Structures are given as structure tokens and as C-alpha cells.
UniProtKB/TrEMBL annotation:
GO terms for cellular component: plasma membrane. It is a multi-pass membrane protein. GO terms for molecular function: protein-transporting ATPase activity. It is found in: Cell membrane; Membrane. Residues 70-126 form the Protein translocase subunit SecDF P1 domain. The chain crosses the membrane at residues 443-463, 470-492, 498-521, 549-567, 573-592. This is Protein translocase subunit SecD.
Amino acid sequence: MASSSIKRSAWRSLSALIALVIGLALLAGGLAVWGGGQLTPKLGLDLEGGTEMVLEPQLAGNQQVSSGQIDQAVDIIRQRIDANGVSEAEISTQGGRNIVVSIPGSPTEEQLQAISKPSQLSFRAVFAQDFSALPETANPSGTPTSGGATGTPSSGATSTPAPTSSAPASSGATTTTPAPSASSTAANGVVPQALRAADSTPTTPASTPASGAASSSPATPAPSASTPAGTATTPAAPATQTPAQQAQAVEGQVTQSLTALGWQQAKATEAAKKVAAQYVALDCGTPGVLEKIVDDPEQPLATCGDDGATKYILGPVEIPGSDIADATSGFQAGPNGQQTSIVEVGLTFNSAGATKFAEVTKRLFALQGQTPRDQFAVVLDKSVITAPRAQAVINDGRASITGSFTVDSAKALAEQLKFGALPISFALQTQDNITPQLGAEQLQIGLLAGLVGLLLVVVYSLLQYRALGFVTVLSLVVASIISYLAVTVLGTTSGFRLTMAGVTGLIVAIGVTADSFIVYFERIRDEVRDGRPLVAAVETGWKRARRTIIAADAVNFIAAGVLYFLASSNVRGFAFTLGLTTLIDLAIVVLFTHPMVQLLARTNFFGQGHRWSGLDPERLGAKVGPRYRGRGQFGTGPRPGGPTPSGGTTIPGSTGSLTPGRAEA
């Protein structure tokens, strides 16, 4: 019964291995047909060639770039490129100023943006906002129709257009909007209430004119229903108002907002006058307008929304992107915990950022109804992603950003925020195709070296272990198939590319795998030499060899992990393939080699210790002491019809009779 149980266990292990191979093969084929992959491993820069890009820093005025900024940018760009796998890119500096990036293949526009985009995220208070450039659509209610809301606002959270001239409301403008309730959504919603989008449905107009405006006029609702969610509706400027009048109205509001932040009156007036002129002259519909904006984190900023139409005046940076501890992406969960169709980027602030965020949301929450001063803009690379209202005080240091995100763009943004923003902006100076550094000839030489090493291992196994050596050969073949399929699948799913260093890791793995077999086979031989039957020797030898094999593979895997995380460039490729093949080696020994030996031990050829089996007890010098043969007889051979030291049966040999004090041979 025990023998039958061992056989079933061996066949289950082999079946699991077959299922693994078939699964990998189907996955590789499916990715090649429907996933844009291929049936061969992707090659790295040194074997396939690729694209070389020179990135030039974009500086404003007399701004200078330091070597520390360049080094930091190189590290961040490398992290971004390697975020989805070991792509084996090469990154270096040129002249202490430019950055040279060489990547395999031809990059897409999205990949270029991911490499060179600064991804500077900041949080700024909104001082002024204008929707006058937005196109008109048929939705007189003004209810938001596009994405950007991070959740449903609590009841009463509505924006009331001020009955003043349509210049942006001055700092003294007030509204009669009822105070919003932060209880239901803030308590039960997954997204913090302080980043909830504003409801732009107009309510009863307020009666307080905006100070600093040239004249008063009846309230004018927002002309468009396409106002991005996450912002409040502000009346548009009439055509009769001059740019000077607009600048005057904005200047008064910005001055008051800056003094509320603790600025001195003279300094606030000077900064407000400058940013007001920039705001009036700003045309968000002009291509490339954001590139001309100088982003000083300590000064107010006139900029545009990501809709390409809405203009903002924002306060100084109150929470920089460096205060973000972690960033994730995915679909937003609703108040009941169910997943919605809204894509979000979740942020977690560090302790300093959480403290700042709590202070800001507390201040803005006290300004409820004073649109747009109760809004908090999320700014990415000078563009306002969303500007929600503060409808609660957040003390847990968590926030969520929604907008016109897709799943892929949200994931890319989360990765960029996680790794940090580039210290300066870069522009693509040149982009050239480069030829393989080593090419097909070197790859063929490397593969030939691997083939020679494999043949040497096969020859040694056959000479040393005879027929048992074929188990080694089959194990190496199965390990090679799994390694090939794994590298192919990883090339499509994780961007892994095989370089010459990676090929070296695969060649080294041949020795690692052969070493495991040698440890196992020698333990079996040791048990046979001690006189155990082969079936028992296989089980006992496996129990002892298993600990040694696992310990050796663990050491190899730890070494590969240390190399992968501490090294860079090609060394990481070597470490990755070494770690991958170490795991494959362990799976092969457990799921193939040991079950095969278990089954072979029960055949006549191996079980009877054939001299070409590699497990012949006589050739191994098995120890055979006096044995009780039954009926009062002892002998040095096996008992009649009993098993040999190798587990077979033999015809009785010489026997002896039991006499007092001695045993006759």
C-alpha cells in the first residue's frame, strides 16, 4: 500500500509539471496572438539595438543646473524605465548637463513622456478662476457632465455665482450658499471629503457685489455645461470689461488672499499685480502655453486647467509632491465599498505632508461658500488636474485625485509620483537609432558556449551515473523549456529583455541545476552502499538531499536578489536570470527528478541493480553483513527469494547453519 501511495504521489508531481509547461506555452501563444507579444524572448540593447535619446534641461532666465540635479534626474529616469521590468536601458550624462538615454527598440510617445516629463505635483489654493473660454453646450442647468468628481458632494454643497461683473470675484465677494454637510460623505466615502468636486448647479444669487470690480451687473451663470467636475462655476467676464478692469478685480482678490496667508501688504500687492497681468494675458487655447509659464513654488501662479480652457490664479505651493509617501492607481470605490468606473490616483502623505494637509483643509473649510477661495487645486506640471472644494478637515493624510484619467495614464502617474518628480524639466534634443553593440554573432557565440557546457554536463552524467544520467539530461531539457517560456512571457508582460549578461545567467544555471542532481544521486548511492534496498535508499536519500538542495538554492537566490537590488544596468539582467533559473531548478528537482527516480527504482533494470543502471550495489561497494536467512540460518548474501541490497530478488546463494558461538558461512 505504501508503494502504491508513493507511485500516485510521483505521478501527481509529474502531472503538475506537465500542466505548468502547457500553461506557460498557452500563455506565451495567447500573448503572441492577442497580446502584442512574440514567441521568442525580447532582446536587449546589446543584442538588438534600439534608440538613443539626448534630453536637454529646460531652464528659465538665469537658472543654472547642478550636477546633483542631473544625478537625481538620472536615478529617477532609471526607476521609471525599470518600473515594469528589466528593460536593460543605459542612462548616462553628457557634458555634465544633458542626459543620454539608450533603450531597446523604438519608444512610443507615451514612453517618451514617461521618461522626460517632470511629474512635479503640488497643491495650491485657488485665488481666482475663469471659465469664459469654455465652449457653450446645451445644458442650461450647469450640472457637470464630465469626469473629475471624486465622489458625490454632500447635500447643500452648491456654488452660487456672485451677482457682480463677470471679472473673477474679488477677495471680498461672498455667497449665500448653505453650509454643506460633511457628515455622510466624509464619514462613509472612501475618498476624503476635502477633495470632493464642487457642484456647479446655480442657486439663489448672492447680493454682495465684488469689491474692486468696475461695475455691477446681474448674475450670469456659467455659460457651459462642460465645466470640468472638481471646479466651481464662476460668472464669465462681459465683453465690455477692459483687460485693465479685469486685472484690477483679480489684483484685489489675490492681494487679500495672500495677506490672509501672512504676507506683508506691500509684498502681497506687488505679487498680486504681477500675477494679475499674467492672468489677463494668458490664453489657454494657445498650443504650448504651459511651457512658457515660470513655476515658482513660492509665488502665486497663473495657469490653465487640463481642459485647455479654464484659467486659474493659484496661491504659493502649500504641499509639494515630495511630501507624498506613496501613490497607487485603480478604480474608485463608492460609499458602499463597491467599485465604480471612476479611475483615481490615491495619495498617502508622509507625516509632514499629513500635517500640512490637515492645516490647509481646515483653513479652506472655514471659507465654505466663498467660491473659488474654498477650492484646493491639484497641479501637475503647471496644469490644474482638478480643483475640488474643501468640505471636511482631513487628518489621516490620505487623498484621491480623479480627472480625465484612463487606467494606463493613472498607473503611469502613480509610478512617477512614487519615484519622485524630476528636479528640472527636460526636452528631447535628438533621437537616433543605434545598432547592436554585440549583435547576432556574439549571441551565437554565447549560445554555443552554453551548448558546449550542456554537452559536458551530459557526458559527465552519463559516465558517472550511466543510465541514471539520462534523468539528468531529461531534467535539463525540461528546465530549458520552462526557462525559455518564462523569459518569453516576461518579455511581453513585464518588459524583460534578454541581454548577454542574462544569457550568461542562463548558462550558469546549467551548473546550478546539475549540482542539485549530483547531490541527490550521491545521497542515494550512499544509502545503497549502507546496504539499503533501492526503494528505501531513494526515499531516505531524498529526505537528506532535499535539505541540502533547498539550502544551496536559497543561497543562490539571496545572492541574485542582492545583485538585482544593489546593482544596475546589465548586472541586474544577470541577477534576474540567475534568480529565475534557481526557482526553476527547485521546481524541476521536486516535480520531475525525484518522481522519476521513484518510478525508475521500481523497474527491474534499476531495481535489480543492473551494472549499467548506475546503482549497482556491487560496483558501489555496498556493505553486506551477516543476515538471518530464516530457519536458524545466517549468511552474507540475501535470504532466499529476498531482496538484494538494491531491492531486487535473487536465487539463494551460500548459506550457513547456526551453531553455539559462531555462524558458518
